[in-house]
Write a sequence for this structure.
């Protein structure tokens, strides 16, 4: 039985607006597009107001008067939208860049670089241990990782005696990336298929009651 | 702004960046209560400043749409509708609160439904692209197409049910060749990120500060 | 489109195998002592995270049954809405037929802006990083938050969002807290190196299939099982299009050769 809930009807209308793009550019899709933009922006504002209340509660209660400084800096950051006065926003942005870069540097070195190198070393010790399938797996991990790094770091061909061996390593690295891209694209099909299922089942199940 | 003031401003900004970076790095690698306190305070200030960036979007969109409505640009009717919806939604959300059931229902029925539908319909474009893209002409395209087709089928329960070993195959593929490519990207990305951080520390990169430069 | 309409109205009931990793995650959650505090948090977009909701909803029911306690820490603008969606869908709160009481078993923190700085500040001292919950109640007034002060009080972290790299950097690597990632299928390939780099500390499920497996383990069929049904047919259609494209290419190549001759 068709739903009588007005929110289900709005949801169905939005789904139809979105799927109408498959037919081509049309006013229904434009309506959905502008609705999406408006709600994203408005939701950010609503979240912002709620977050400001939460974040500056210690300032308003007098527990932490020093928070007046980030309040002023935050208001200064809004000037980035005006070209003429955008220089005012450079001070709060400098703090954001400094803190963000400092935190990411300490984390990147530990998690992206050192832990992955440690994993490669650990796995290279396991190549000759265990059943053939896992040994092959570990061998592929080590070889593909090293050649992949070679491909990315030595993208431009070098002149000299090392060019030929490096070019073979780069070629293997290229194939390593092709396999990664192919597998990740194939895996991602499941995600989009699932989202389409969710949208269509909501339309058929909740709205039309099928 | 005069050149002298611009000169001083540039150095104040650079000093701010260096102080913030070194404080956050030093608080992790050194044992020093004053540096810890400074780093924690800077993290809190960073969180508070970033909150205001949530309002940048509405300022930009509203100014563009108001301009568009005044000039009767293309789709100006939709722009007017969007302006009205933004104002109504902000009042509605502020009045009810973001954790209220009514706000949740409205948000799910509109924005989330639209977003899920937009992402979901990509499957139709991806299927159409599969017809055009996976043309096997060279060894590389053969490898690419084979990998994609293999993992698509290995994840499918049509094969998983009758042939349970297919699950082990997909796990092996995703955790060996695929993982290696991702790991190589991560390693080089990490090296690049560390180098970028050093360049920012030395003042060689401006990054987001480009938006604040005068014309 | 026809494939989806048919599979949505007439479920196939396709069966699937259980993955070892999903069983490991289930056993890890099962082994957490009663009263353990689990943080659920991360940053991304609701629509992408819907894929993770399949596993998260089943996991919430599992955690509620085992009397664990949850703190939701949203680092993305839409994460608050996502957490509420999952909690409501799981039906674990007292007002929805469950046993959890707000403030005692479950707390929802407000949006935590700032990316990396938010994670670091939260791990250092939760009460300094955020003063109130999402409704504006001071954290000190909530019984659960009186016991949870910093990273030492967190027993596990579940991430149902895209940005898992932040969790690995600032929660797993820096604070040694085990993390479970209900990965989106597209994100799985990107973040699986972390599972290899931190064995025994990081586990990941793979998209809707992983969600369906967790639902099956918990005995609560939901979105994951429904998606797996339609994907069963969609996967064949997709590979069929790849084959069709190559047949078309071979045919047009033959025709071109004929024209040249």
């Amino acid at each position: 039985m068709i739903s009588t809930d007005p929110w289900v009807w709005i949801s169905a209308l939005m789904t139809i607006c979105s799927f109408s793009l498959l037919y081509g550019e049309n006013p229904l899709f434009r309506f959905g597009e502008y609705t999406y933009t408006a709600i994203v922006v408005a939701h950010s504002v609503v979240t912002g107001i709620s977050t400001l209340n939460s974040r500056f509660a210690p300032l308003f209660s007098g527990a932490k008067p020093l928070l007046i400084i980030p309040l002023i800096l935050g208001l200064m950051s809004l000037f980035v939208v005006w070209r003429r006065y955008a220089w005012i926003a450079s001070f709060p942005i400098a703090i954001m860049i400094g803190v963000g870069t400092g935190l990411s540097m300490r984390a990147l070195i530990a998690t992206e670089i050192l832990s992955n190198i440690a994993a490669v070393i650990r796995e290279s010790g396991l190549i000759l241990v265990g059943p053939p399938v896992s040994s092959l797996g570990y061998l592929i991990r080590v070889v593909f990782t090293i050649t992949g790094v070679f491909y990315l770091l030595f993208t431009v061909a070098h002149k000299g005696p090392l060019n030929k061996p490096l070019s073979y390593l780069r070629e293997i690295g290229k194939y390593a990336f092709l396999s990664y891209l192919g597998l990740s694209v194939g895996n991602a099909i499941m995600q989009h298929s699932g989202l389409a299922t969710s949208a269509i089942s909501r339309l058929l199940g909740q709205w039309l009651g099928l | 702004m005069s050149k002298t003031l611009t000169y001083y401003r540039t150095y104040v900004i650079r000093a701010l960046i260096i102080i913030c970076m070194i404080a956050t790095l030093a608080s992790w690698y050194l044992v020093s209560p004053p540096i810890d306190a400074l780093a924690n305070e800077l993290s809190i200030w960073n969180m508070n400043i970033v909150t205001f960036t949530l309002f940048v979007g509405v300022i930009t969109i509203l100014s563009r749409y108001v301009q568009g409505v005044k000039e009767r640009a293309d789709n100006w009717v939709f722009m007017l509708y969007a302006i009205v919806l933004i104002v109504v939604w902000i009042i509605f959300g502020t009045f009810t609160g973001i954790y209220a059931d009514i706000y949740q229902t409205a948000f799910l029925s509109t924005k989330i439904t639209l977003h899920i539908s937009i992402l979901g319909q990509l499957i139709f474009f991806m299927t159409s692209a599969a017809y055009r893209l996976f043309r096997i002409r060279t060894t590389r395209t053969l490898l690419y197409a084979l990998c994609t087709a293999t993992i698509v089928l290995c994840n499918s329960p049509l094969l998983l049910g009758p042939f349970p070993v297919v699950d082990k195959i997909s796990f092996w593929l995703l955790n060996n060749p695929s993982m290696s490519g991702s790991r190589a990207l991560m390693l080089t990305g990490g090296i690049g990120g560390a180098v970028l951080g050093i360049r920012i520390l030395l003042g060689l990169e401006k990054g987001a500060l480009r938006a604040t430069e005068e014309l | 489109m026809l494939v989806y309409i048919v599979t949505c109205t007439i479920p196939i009931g396709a069966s699937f195998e259980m993955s070892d990793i999903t069983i490991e995650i289930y056993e890890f959650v099962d082994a957490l002592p009663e009263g353990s505090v689990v943080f659920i948090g991360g940053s991304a977009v609701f629509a992408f995270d819907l894929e993770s909701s399949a596993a998260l909803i089943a996991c919430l029911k599992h955690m509620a049954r085992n009397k664990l306690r949850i703190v939701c820490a949203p680092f993305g603008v839409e994460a608050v809405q996502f957490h509420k969606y999952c909690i409501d869908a799981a039906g674990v709160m007292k007002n929805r037929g469950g046993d959890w009481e707000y403030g005692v078993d479950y707390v929802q923190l407000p949006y935590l802006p700032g990316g990396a700085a938010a994670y670091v500040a939260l791990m250092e001292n939760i009460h300094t990083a955020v003063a109130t919950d999402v409704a504006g109640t001071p954290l000190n007034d909530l019984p659960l938050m009186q016991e949870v002060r910093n990273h030492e009080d967190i027993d596990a972290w579940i991430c149902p969002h895209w940005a898992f790299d932040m969790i690995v950097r600032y929660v797993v690597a820096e604070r040694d807290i085990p993390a479970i990632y209900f990965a989106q299928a597209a994100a799985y390939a990107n973040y699986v190196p972390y599972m290899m780099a931190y064995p025994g500390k990081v586990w990941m499920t793979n998209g809707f299939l992983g969600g369906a497996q967790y639902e099956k383990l918990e005995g609560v069929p939901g979105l994951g099982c429904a998606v797996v049904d339609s994907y069963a047919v969609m996967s064949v259609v997709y590979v069929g299009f790849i084959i069709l494209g190559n047949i078309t290419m071979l045919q047009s190549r033959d025709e071109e050769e004929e024209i040249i001759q």
Observations:
- Chain A has a mean pLDDT of 90.
- Helices of chain A lie at 6-19, 27-55, 57-60, 68-77, 90-124, 132-153, 163-207.
